[in-house]
Amino acid sequence: MHLLKVVTLFVVATFTAVALSPANCTAAQSRDVRSLIEAGAIALKTGDLITADSNFENAVRVDAKTKPEISTLWRSAGETALEGGKITRAAAFFAKAILYDERVAPRLGELLLKGAATMDNERKRAGIVTRAIGWAGAEAALEASVEYYTQRLGPPRKVFLEHAGWTELATLQPGDEIHYLSSVTFRQKDAGTTRIMPPTIAETTRLALQPADAAGRDSTPVWLARHRVPTRVYIWLLPFSN
Q: Is the domain defined by 20-152 classed in CATH 1.25.40?
């Protein structure tokens, strides 16, 4: 009787160990993870973003290796939004994709910059480009902005500021304006006033100029110089028009 009890306990213990073995747990968890991802994908397609987000987060808690797959689902949704002209929505989806896999950031940043180029609202486009800077990089965003404003304002003048000395940019008549893009700070001087101009990548900024006739002059010469590091500044001279 005592022997039978020992054997019974051994069999139960052995069965329990097999049932809870890592291999069996992994198989069960894999099925759960797959269900979560599939449910999340369906929710994402139907626009139920809260449910999609919840399912994806739960899947990652069980198996972190699913992150790239979930990133791809968000990326696909973002690309679909881009194709439909929903740029802001695409930016939000791309942000989710990057959250799950940072390696895709440069490529998604480039796609977002291309999408932003189609936007008519200049301020909203600037917001999208500002977001893309952290993914695609400042130089890629600057090039995209130069292309965007070239279509709107015409080709810019490229000014390379390599040395500490001043470079004469232009002599402005009353009412003329200068708009610029630059990824780093530079110095500006006109009529004896010197300023440090901030970088501007997403949207052109107008140079702050002293009025041409403030000191009895008919025109204002404008000079530029590097600040801390060499840079190139893209300049648009906009003549005054009534």
A: yes
